[in-house]
Every structure is written in C-alpha cells, then in structure tokens.
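lol forgot to send this yesterday, sorry. struct tokens for the thing we talked abt
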C-alpha cells in the first residue's frame, strides 16, 4: 500500500505547505466500502502528528433529515434512486457548501460546527443528529479532507444521459438534474483522489460481506438479498458518471488509484499538470 499512498502523502504535504492563505481542500471519491473514510482518517492523523491542523468531513454528514428524505421519496414515487439516502438529491447541498466555506475561512479563535448523521435512526433509515451532537472544529485549519462516493460527479449531456439511461435506469434523468447544484462542492476542492475498481461486482461483494460481518457480531444488518438490492441501486450511477470523471477530471490535481478486491491499491496515475 505504501507504494501508492506514501507518494500521495508526500505530494499532499507539498500542496499543503504552499497553501498559506487558506486550507488546502482534498477530495476523495470512490465506491461504497472501498476505504474512503479509512484513508481520510489516516491522512488526518498523519498530518496532525506533524503539526498540520486537519479535519475530515463526509458528504454523508449533509444528508437530508428523515422527514425531508421521506418527502423527497413521496415526490418521486417509483424512483428507486430516491427512495432512500445516498443519491444526488438526498443531501442538503446548501448546508454542505456553508460548512466547507466556513472551514476554508475559519481563523484563530473561530469555531465550525459539522453536522452529524445518525444512520441507525428510524430502523436504519437514518436522520440528522441534533445540533448538540455535531462536531466542533476550532480554527485555523490547514487541511480539509472531504470524502464521498459521488464527490466530483458532474451532470451528463442529454445525449450521453439518454444512452446510459436507456440501457440502465431511466431514474437517472431526475438524478442528473439534482446533481447540478453539487458543483458548488466540487469547486471547493483543490485536488481529488479517485479510488476505482476493476469491476463493479467488487462493490456488491464488499457490501454483502460487510453486512454478513455485522450479523456475525449480532448487530442489526441487512440480509444478503437486501444488501445486494441496496448497493445495486448505485451501479447505474457508477456506469454513468465515473467514465466522465476520469476523462474530464474536475480538478487540475487529480489522482486515480485502482483497488483490488482486497482493497489494496494495484495501479495509479496522475493527470498531467
């Protein structure tokens, strides 16, 4: 792993050192279960250990409240992409933009409150936690790491969307419109690391295995069939948006790391500057 992530950490250190006026904002994009949160946490810990004030946030922090999610699903009956949290449209984009702006601007003595989302609420449907449980981050900050499965995705043209939706999931046409405001998050990034997989079947296997592990620990968990049903809802989005992300990176600083089935990096490339 160090063969790929150690150079990434050194490259990131050089970028953070240059960012003297405000924090450097790194995005991490990759499919569910690939280790985005683990990588973000490892980077924050490593940089904190050398005196770089760091914080990580997830786009999951900005999900709609439970009531708002139910209203969204009711407004789009039959759209599997919007039945539950996850897809574009199920986040409070304005809230996320505000928090990112505050993290970029917070100075000495300042404080930023980062929302917390309770995925166990409402029998696993989730809800935003009360503000009393939100994280507080003291300024100033040198490095902000933002991670999310669809971070950096951008809307497709009607022609491109039609080709994908016709063969995959017509619900994407609605999702494609919901994706437009998320550009505000992308514009806040200075660099993006894209974690990729050789085959989408890997994502399904990761989710099924994760739920099995929870059941073995006697924790609430999905059955194998329910786990597949949940994660397979996201596969049309990966087929639609990942190729565009790779061909037209949203940031000048863009690194792609391909993961094996065991989540270990096997290949990487960086977009030319």
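and heres what i got for the seq, position by position
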């Amino acid at each position: 792993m160090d063969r790929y992530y150690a150079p990434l950490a050194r490259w990131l250190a050089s970028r953070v050192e240059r960012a003297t006026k405000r924090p450097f904002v790194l995005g991490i994009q990759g499919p569910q279960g690939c280790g985005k949160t683990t990588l973000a946490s490892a980077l924050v810990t490593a940089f904190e250990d050398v005196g770089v004030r760091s914080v990580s946030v997830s786009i999951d922090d900005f999900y709609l409240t439970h009531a708002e999610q139910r209203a969204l699903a009711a407004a789009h009956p039959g759209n599997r992409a919007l039945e539950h949290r996850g897809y574009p449209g199920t986040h409070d984009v304005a809230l996320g933009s505000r928090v990112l702006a505050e993290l970029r601007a917070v100075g000495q003595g300042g404080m930023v409150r980062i929302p917390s989302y309770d995925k166990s609420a409402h029998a696993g449907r989730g809800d935003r936690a009360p503000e009393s449980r939100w994280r507080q981050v003291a300024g100033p900050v040198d490095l902000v790491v933002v991670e999310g499965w669809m971070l950096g995705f951008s809307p497709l043209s009607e022609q491109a969307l039609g080709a994908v939706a016709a063969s995959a999931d017509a619900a994407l046409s609605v999702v494609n419109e919901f994706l437009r405001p998320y550009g505000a998050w992308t514009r806040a990034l200075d660099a993006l690391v894209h974690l990729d997989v050789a085959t989408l079947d890997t994502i399904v296997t990761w989710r099924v295995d994760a739920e099995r592990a929870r059941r073995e620990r006697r924790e609430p968990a999905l059955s194998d069939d329910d786990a597949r049903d949940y994660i397979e809802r996201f596969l049309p989005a990966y087929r639609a948006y990942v190729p565009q992300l790779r061909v037209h990176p949203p940031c000048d600083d863009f690194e792609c790391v391909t993961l094996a089935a065991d989540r270990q990096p096997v290949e990487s490339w960086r977009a030319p500057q």
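The first helix runs from residue 2 to 18. anyway ping me if u want another try
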